[in-house]
Amino acid sequence: MEKLFPDAGHPYGLSPIPFFSLRDGKLYPDSGHPDGTGTKPWFAVRGDKVYPDAGHPTGIGAAPWFRIQNGKLYPDAGNPDGIGTAPWYSIR
After folding, report:
1. Contact 73, 55 (CB under 8 A)
2. In this model, does residue 82 exceed pLDDT 90?
3. H/E/C letters for each residue in the chain?
4. How far is CA 14 from its chain centroid?
5. How many independent structural domains does the chain possess?
6. Average pLDDT for residues 39-55, to the nearest whole number?
7. pLDDT single digits (tens) 2-18
8. Which of 9, 26, 61, 74 is 20 to 30 A from 83, alpha carbon to alpha carbon?
9. What is the mean pLDDT of the chain?
């Protein structure tokens, strides 16, 4: 199972503790997430884009919050902070 760890661009900074787990194309909150582990997916991965899913506090979203590039997630058009050039998460 792959995990997502906060990277240099994340608002909380780098962390060795995973914020999300990737299972079946969905991202679930993991032990490092401020809200704790979760059973509902916060995000859905579709190709190289990541969209808010049913478990996300804002609900399912039509605009991608992140884009995946070289094993990292960068803020995209749907992210409240806007499109970004620094990665928020690294996939390991």
Report:
1. no
2. yes
3. CEEEEECCCCCCCCCCCCCEEEECCEEEECCCCCCCCCCCCCEEEECCEEEECCCCCCCCCCCCCEEEECCEEEECCCCCCCCCCCCCEEEC
4. 14
5. 1
6. 97
7. 999 999 999 999 999 99
8. 26
9. 96
Predicted confidence at residue 1, as pLDDT, reads 80
Please report where in the chains the tokens 């998460």 appear, as a residue.
89
Angle, alpha carbons 58-61-64 (nearest 5°): 120
Nearest to 31 by CA among 10, 17, 16, 13: 17
Q: Which amino acid is at 45?
A: V
Tokens of 29: 């909150």
- Tokens in use for 12? 């909380």
Sequence length of the chain is: 92
Structure tokens at 35: 């809200």
Cα–Cα distance, 86 to 52 (Å, whole number): 20
Cβ within 8 Å of residue 38, ≥6 positions away: 28, 29, 55
